[in-house]
Amino acid sequence: CNVVVLISGSGSNLQALIDAIAAGLPARIGAVISNRADAYGLVRAQNAGIATAVLDHKGFDGREAFDRALIERIDAQRPDLVVLAGFMRILSAEFVRHYAGRLLNIHPSLLPRYKGLHTHQRALEAGDAEHGCSVHFVTEELDGGPLVVQAVVPVLNGDTPDSLAQRVQRGEHHIYPLAVRWFAEGRLRLGEQGVELDGQPL
Ligand code: GRF
Questions:
Q1: Which residues take part in binding N(1)-(5-phospho-beta-D-ribosyl)glycinamide (predicted)?
Q2: Domain 2-110+134-151+173-201 - what CATH class?
């Protein structure tokens, strides 16, 4: 399974995937693409011998033009799967349709709660006892695509958005490689009726 990973930042989820592949997950990362030249994830990729590219959205006249250039870069790798790992850009409908059924995202909340930004702060403000993260197929609805897997963590007394984010991220680093493994093994697909694992609706 050939994977292209899109990042904007630290790339700890990318690292979890690199580590899982080193430990036997049957996939290869053909390229890591960042919209930011200073993303630390680019260093992680280079350290693992993975090709990197920077495509700065600021150099393009609008979202559609950027997304078309991004599609070109990605498709040069002929990926089976595109993994959004902290890629902080909203993708156009054209992009999402182009990768329908082979585009995964991880979001730091128990979707459908807290779509969008500042999820840890919002969970704290709401007084939630539990919080977590979700892997989902990407559709045109922002953070609204069909769910694949979630990790739940407790919210503890005295938690700050940062301490909670760290706990949630440990969950992310488990479930994202797991979802990619299911996909790479041909067990996970987005069918007409929604997500299927081993041919059964999730
Ligand atoms: C993660 O918390 C992910 O849920 C969100 O962006 C963050 C990326 O972190 N979409 P990293 O770059 O993988 O460390």
A1: 11-13
A2: alpha beta
